[in-house]
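Students often ask what a holo structure prediction actually looks like on paper. The answer is less mysterious than it sounds. You provide the chain, you provide the ligand, and the output is a string of discrete structure tokens encoding the 3D arrangement of the protein together with protoporphyrin IX containing FE.
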Amino acid sequence: MPTLPLHMRRAGFDPAPELSAQRDEGVRLVDVPQGDRVWLVTRIADVREVLGDPRRFGNSPHHVVPGAPALSEEELAAVRPGNPLAFDPPEHTRLRRLVAGEFTGRRMRWLEPRVHEVVRDRLDALERGGPPADLVTGFALPVPALVICEMLGVPFADRDAFQDRYARFFDVTLASEERLGIALESRAYLAELARRARSAPGDDLLGTLVRSDLGEDEVVGLADLLLLAGHETTANMLSLGVATLLAEPDRRARLLAAPEVVVEELLRWLTVVPTGVPRIALVETELGGRAVLPGDLVICSLPAANRDPELVPDPDALDLGRQAGSHVAFGHGVHHCLGAPLARMEMRIAFQALLTRFPDLRVVSTDLVFRSEQAVYGLDELLVEW
Ligand code: HEM
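The corresponding structure tokens follow.
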């Protein structure tokens, strides 16, 4: 049985080459620390089949951190309530429905002028500080963090503490007791904000949640996921995306000419969620010609599926002129990323504004430091000058 390549971590912009090799084999059993019978799914059609059928493949509450060891019962009780990724329908539907209205296309059009302002302010600050600058701490992290903080009603001034907590929580090498401690800290922080919101509910998302019929721990869990998912992923797409766009001279012009098309191809090619949250087989079933038993863990590799030649021709090439097809960078099925319209808007506005403000922006770092130990792939630092 092959060992799963380093929890599917990567070096550089491409997925581990072993992953693409596994795609030729179809669905197969692999050795991972997470369990006994673990199936690795790497083809786009099989990934869509798993993620698209919650009656056969449920969300595993024990595996809420992709790539990390399974959670204990104690951890589970602490981190599960309110987290839509830890439930199947109908519980999942109930949680998701409460906040879905905040992420529609209409809501995004309303929010767009504010995102422009947030981006402009960060660019002003970068310009004032002068080159060289770290684009991760100066732009990629604060832009989506500011937006989700405002949407939720979380003080942006607390960002250093919560970003540090999430980075530690997402470290796939962390011992499980430590992860539990961090999860509890994060919940305690959001519980305090929820308590304040209860005494004076605002017109932000926390206000909506405390006015709903959710239990207290559910409000905390849902807000925690929104704060985490709302900036970690987009921030890493922004920094990796800028590094990619600056790597070749014609990429900047392509982005400025057709930002929507380029953002989709970047999402496909970079795929910052390295695995996709694992699923558990709920019934005895067949997948890619293999007999899967109830309780088997099924890990869908989003980076491998997004480089499947069945999705686009010449999938390892970055082709900024093509339609990236229906990639799975945001997942698929009932858990398809709730924040996808927000992330797409933030990327389009941020890339456009950055490359317009600094037409001669260049990467200074010679060796990029990739976040290979984190459950969201990206860069720790991106030094640029202009
Ligand atoms: C779910 C990726 C931005 C909120 C997901 C999933 C993926 C993903 C792959 C599915 C996980 C699964 O099926 O198990 C991304 C990427 C982003 C991004 C690549 C940025 C480029 C955001 C933003 C938010 C957000 C800005 C805003 C709050 C969520 C939530 C879920 C989710 C709440 C759970 C949905 C559910 O269980 O129904 N995301 N995401 N994400 N994402 Fe995102």
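The radius of gyration is 20 Å.
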